[in-house]
Amino acid sequence: MAEAIELYREGLRFRARSQWELAWRRFVRHKPAMFSLVLLLMICGAALFAPHIAPYGLNEQDLARGSQAPTLRGLHLFGTDRLGRDYLSRVLYGTRTTVWVALVVALLSTAIGTTLGAVAGYYRGWIDSLLMRLVDFVLCLPFLAVLLIAAAFLGRGSPFRVAVILALLLWTTIARIVRGQYLSLREQEFVEAARAAGASDARIMFRHMLPNSLGPIIVNATLTVALAILLEATLSFLGFGIQPPTPALGKLIDDGKGAMLTQWWLVVMPGVVIVVICLCVNFIGDGLRDALDPRQARR
Fold it and tell me: How far is CA 170 from CA 93, 98, 146, 206, 248, in A?
């Protein structure tokens, strides 16, 4: 009996590897997703190595060149602000902060939602009802009002605290997705085989069932990155998010909005970077969805 179960598990592992290989091939053939992935990696790489790539320091001033429009002279490709600080350098540093916050939000919200959704879908009954009512409660909250209040009193000025607040409000979608996946998987043969082998509930949920639910989880986590970037930029723009001296793209737009009519680059340049990153993330999410679920691509 034990040997039969082990052979069955080995067959499942081989099948999973084959499925991931096919998914990768489908993703590579998705040209918009591949182009977006390369572009996003370039942007994130430039932001990560901003101290080595940026032509000037974050707060390096040159009052003689203040409020200069984008130009090749002096490598001020994104222009300068009224204090003569190079805006390309500030956008690179701001991108690093914004992307870091978005990744933390995606990881935390995915971890919370996956755990709660897995528990609800596996155990069902009163546990499922309790956790789903918690999801309904969070969804019923006035999102923007709660977000602004929480950010104002708990997260203002700290990138990590802002990321935690966003994650605590964005886990509900992935929880519902994982719950649905587990409700359909808990009756599958490989779960019964794991139970027959004496595996614990935690091992069955996270060792056997979780790998079979990774497709929707990965796609949702990818799209959460784009949503987190927009929400972080909104909070910073409204003055409730990340505060100086820490740079952030939303805060750069907020700082430049007063001179938008005469110094358009102070708003346009960080805004364009936000739009490009979000578009790249959404195209990558579409590519992952089509690769991990070919039925979506044929619709």
Answer: 26, 17, 12, 21, 21
- In the block, tokens 């155990």 appear at 123
DSSP characters over 26-83: HHHT-HHHHHHHHHHHHHHHHHHTHHHH-SS-TT---GGGTTPPS-SGGG-TT-B-TT
Q: What is the pTM of this model?
A: 0.86
CATH architecture of 2-297: Orthogonal Bundle (1.10)
Q: Residue 160 CB: number of other CB atoms within 10 A?
A: 11
* All residues at 6 or more sequence positions from 157 whose CB lies less than 8 Å from its CB, including other chains: 242, 243, 246
pLDDT in tens, 186-238: 888 878 877 887 778 888 888 888 888 888 898 899 989 999 999 988 888 88
Whether omega before 245 lies within 30 degrees of 0, making that bond cis, reads yes
pLDDT for 237-293, tens place per residue? 888 888 878 888 988 898 888 888 788 989 999 999 999 999 999 999 888 888 876
Handedness of CA 27, 104, 41, 239 (dihedral sign): positive
277, 280, 288, 285: which is closest to 99 by C-alpha?
277
* Between 1 and 178, the higher pLDDT residue: 178
Segments of 115-242 assigned E as strands: none
- With contact defined as beta carbons under 8 Å apart, do 288 and 280 qualify? no
Q: Domain limits of the chain?
A: 2-297
Angle at 74 between CA 72 and CA 76, to 5 degrees: 60
Taking the chain, what is the end-to-end CA distance rounded to the nearest angstrom?
A: 43
Q: What is the C-alpha to C-alpha distance for residues 9 and 188, in angstroms, rounded to an integer?
A: 13
Q: Say what angle helices 172-185 and 125-140 make with each other, to 10 degrees.
A: 160
